[in-house]
């Protein structure tokens, strides 16, 4: 998430800035390029004191221009202070003016130090918030949705950085500069509708500005925390729904497997039934063939038995006939024996006679 820093300058109290704008002697904030670069870098890159992101169109244009003008205002102010101190050398109150200049310079340095401390504290808070969100994202999965919500919420209702150089001096005049109008225009463009609800801090003191920044930062942090909680709860609900859906899918897959196994068993039983039916038909055909063969055998055996009975009847008839012949032969033998005895008797009688 690209972070765009925008520096907003509130109305300042300067002394004779308009009359001294033409000449710019070296000052503590303006003359050394290295120190100025360091200040701009710390102001432009420090992600601490901000609540949202500025539009990308203001990154290289208005933001840098406003930062340079704010630094130029401060440098012109210091230049005016020093010039006023130099021109008042011949004045009778030289020491008093010098002390006032030193007091104002010390206040400005303290102001810058406090603002830098505030930026560091805000940077630490942002780092802690990022670490917390990353840990939450690691536990709950990817945080692309959370990052998108964070970016959108930052773009919709957050305030830019307010970096103000403010000093006061007794008897000084407040001069208006065109850069202040640019700052206000940029402020209105960044806030949009938020400018109607959140007033620009009317106080010029550091405590009031810091309090306003703290209140707005806490409000936006609470809003972001609520949105992050809602997103985390939605993520957890989605995970629970996904887990229940996963369980239902597992149960449905198990039921599909059981149904597939049952269909396979039914198909195997149908195949076995068809094979048993085919075996039954084969056995019925075999039984029919056996019956037909048995009937044919019975018919053949009946014919054989009929022939045997006929032969037996013939044999019986022949046996009866032979018995009759034997009886006749026996009768003839008996008759022949009687005739033979009679003949022998006749022969014996003849011989004896």
From TrEMBL:
<dbReference type="Pfam" id="PF00038">
    <property type="entry name" value="Filament"/>
</dbReference>
<dbReference type="GO" id="GO:0005198">
    <property type="term" value="F:structural molecule activity"/>
</dbReference>
<protein>
    <submittedName>
        <fullName>Phakinin</fullName>
    </submittedName>
</protein>
<dbReference type="GO" id="GO:0045109">
    <property type="term" value="P:intermediate filament organization"/>
</dbReference>
<feature type="domain" description="IF rod">
    <location>
        <begin position="97"/>
        <end position="353"/>
    </location>
</feature>
<keyword id="KW-0403">Intermediate filament</keyword>
<feature type="coiled-coil region">
    <location>
        <begin position="252"/>
        <end position="325"/>
    </location>
</feature>
<dbReference type="InterPro" id="IPR039008">
    <property type="entry name" value="IF_rod_dom"/>
</dbReference>
<feature type="region of interest" description="Disordered">
    <location>
        <begin position="1"/>
        <end position="41"/>
    </location>
</feature>
<keyword id="KW-0175">Coiled coil</keyword>
<dbReference type="GO" id="GO:0005882">
    <property type="term" value="C:intermediate filament"/>
</dbReference>
<dbReference type="InterPro" id="IPR002957">
    <property type="entry name" value="Keratin_I"/>
</dbReference>
């Amino acid at each position: 998430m690209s972070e765009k820093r925008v520096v907003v300058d509130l109305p300042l109290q300067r002394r004779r800035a308009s009359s001294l704008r033409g000449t710019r002697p070296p000052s503590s904030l303006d003359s050394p390029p290295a120190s100025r670069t360091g200040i701009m870098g710390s102001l432009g890159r420090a992600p601490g004191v901000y609540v949202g992101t500025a539009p990308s169109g203001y990154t290289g244009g208005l933001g840098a221009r406003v930062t340079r003008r704010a630094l130029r205002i401060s440098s012109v102010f210091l230049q005016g202070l020093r010039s006023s101190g130099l021109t008042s050398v011949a004045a009778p109150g030289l020491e008093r003016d010098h002390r006032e200049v030193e007091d104002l310079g010390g206040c400005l340095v303290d102001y810058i130090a406090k603002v830098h401390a505030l930026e560091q504290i805000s940077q630490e808070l942002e780092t802690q918030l990022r670490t917390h969100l990353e840990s939450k994202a690691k536990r709950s999965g990817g945080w692309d949705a959370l990052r998108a919500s964070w970016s959108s919420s930052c773009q919709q209702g957050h305030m830019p950085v307010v970096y103000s150089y403010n000093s006061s001096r007794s008897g000084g005049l407040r001069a208006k500069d065109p850069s202040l109008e640019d700052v206000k225009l940029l402020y209105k463009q960044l806030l949009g509708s938020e400018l109607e609800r959140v007033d620009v801090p009317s106080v010029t003191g550091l405590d009031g500005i810091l309090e306003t920044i703290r209140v707005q930062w806490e409000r936006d942090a609470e809003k972001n925390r609520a949105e992050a909680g809602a997103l985390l709860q939605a993520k957890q609900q989605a995970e629970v729904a996904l887990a229940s859906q996963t369980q239902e899918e597992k149960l449905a897959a198990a039921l599909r497997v059981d149904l597939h196994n049952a269909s396979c068993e039914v198909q195997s039983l149908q195949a076995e039934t068809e094979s048993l039916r085919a075996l039954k038909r084969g056995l019925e055909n075999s039984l029919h063939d056996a019956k037909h063969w048995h009937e044919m055998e019975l018919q053949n055996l009946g014919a054989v038995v009929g022939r045997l009975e006929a032969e037996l009847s013939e044999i019986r008839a022949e046996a009866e006939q032979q018995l009759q012949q034997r009886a006749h032969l026996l009768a003839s033998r008996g008759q022949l024996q009687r005739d033979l005895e009679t003949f022998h008797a006749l022969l014996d009688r003849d011989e004896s006679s």
